[in-house]
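User: Can you help me understand a structure? I only have the sequence.
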Amino acid sequence: MEPIRVLIVDDHAVVRQGLRSLLSMHDDIQVVGEADRGAVVLEKIGALQPDVVLLDIRIPPPTGVEVAHRLRRAYPQVKIIILTTYDDDRYLNEALQAGAHGYLLKDTSRKFLVDSIRQVYNGQRLLSPDLVDQVLHNYEAMAKKVAHYEYGLTDNELLVLREISEGSSIKDIAQKIHLSEATIKKRMQDILDKMGVAHRTQAVAEAIRKGLI
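Assistant: Let's start by predicting it. Here is the structure, written out as tokens:
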């Protein structure tokens, strides 16, 4: 079986050397080249024909994200693993949108990195364990936002739903937010109409299911 051909892309020589040293310990992985900037990657990729590119996101232009975009268009068979110190949402989202197959932090364990190369080569997509909760949280927030717009509920209507879910009566809510019971009843009816349900319990159940409250 042919070894997995890996191209290492990082603008720090010590990082490239460390990765090459680590990967050379594994018979099923072969480092076929290195690059310290985006332009070099695009220049070498055709001749080197790597299976997997270990790509830092912050490199001299074009950036890692732009390189990922170009590789996905020109060399769709090449798997891309972003290997970076940056764990913020913007870089993560940009990398995934660019088609990266993995997003790993540089403090990941050596074993996890090597296993990730093998798994991505075999068609899987991976994130550093520390990023999984972050991605799930972002997904839940997005789903909640979509549901919010789906029903067109206002913040005040969500407040009423939340109070109802906690067992408050119309009278309790009116007293708590200093509005008349008639106003709260009208607001509740608007909620039912927007959500297309007949009862408060149905509205609360749907809101909980959608993550609105």
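Now, to help you interpret it: The chain has ten helices and six strands. The first strand starts at residue 4 and ends at 9. Let me know which part you'd like to focus on.
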